[in-house]
Amino acid sequence: MDILEQQSSNRPPDYHALLTSHHLVSPTKRRSLQRWSSELSISGFAKVGYPGVIYAQGSQENVEEFVANVKSMQWLALRVRFVEPIDPANDGHHQGWSKFQKVGEVVEEMRRRGRDKYIIETGIGSSVLK
């Protein structure tokens, strides 16, 4: 085992969070999400429009701070679906923050990350999957 493998095996698991809202249209909220993702080294995405979907991945501390920041804003109906550790066997390294317009794009991105079951469980994109 080389040093890089030892460091990655001793590293705590990344966390991820999924949040949904009635909508995400505010340019201020969208800019805040982008800024916080950069400041906190969060990868993920926001699906703008109706419904709003936010997915974040990073260290536990940073994901929890990101979620707290999102919750501190005023929302019509924000729901934190989960904040939990990622199974290390299913933890690809993703970087950057993306913005999507369509539910189908969210489904594809979660599928690419190996996490489409989370979208299916919440009922988001169920019409896309049929």
What descriptors fit this protein?
disordered N terminus; globular; 5-stranded mixed β-sheet; 6 helices; 130 residues; single chain; alpha+beta
For the record, give the distance between the C-alpha atoms at the N and C termini, rounded to a whole number.
45 Å
Count the beta strands: 5
The largest sheet has its strands arranged as 4-1-3-2-5
Structural class from helices and strands? Answer: alpha+beta
Average pLDDT confidence is: 86
Radius of gyration over C-alpha positions, nearest whole angstrom: 15 Å
Proportion of helical residues: 40-55%
Q: How large is the share of residues in beta strands? A: 15-25%
Number of helices: 6
Structure description:
The chain is α+β, with helices and mostly antiparallel strands. 42% of the residues lie in helices and 24% in strands. It contains six helices and five strands, in the order αβαββαββααα. The chain has a five-stranded mixed sheet. Helix 4 crosses helix 5 (116-122). Residues 1-7 have low confidence and may be disordered.
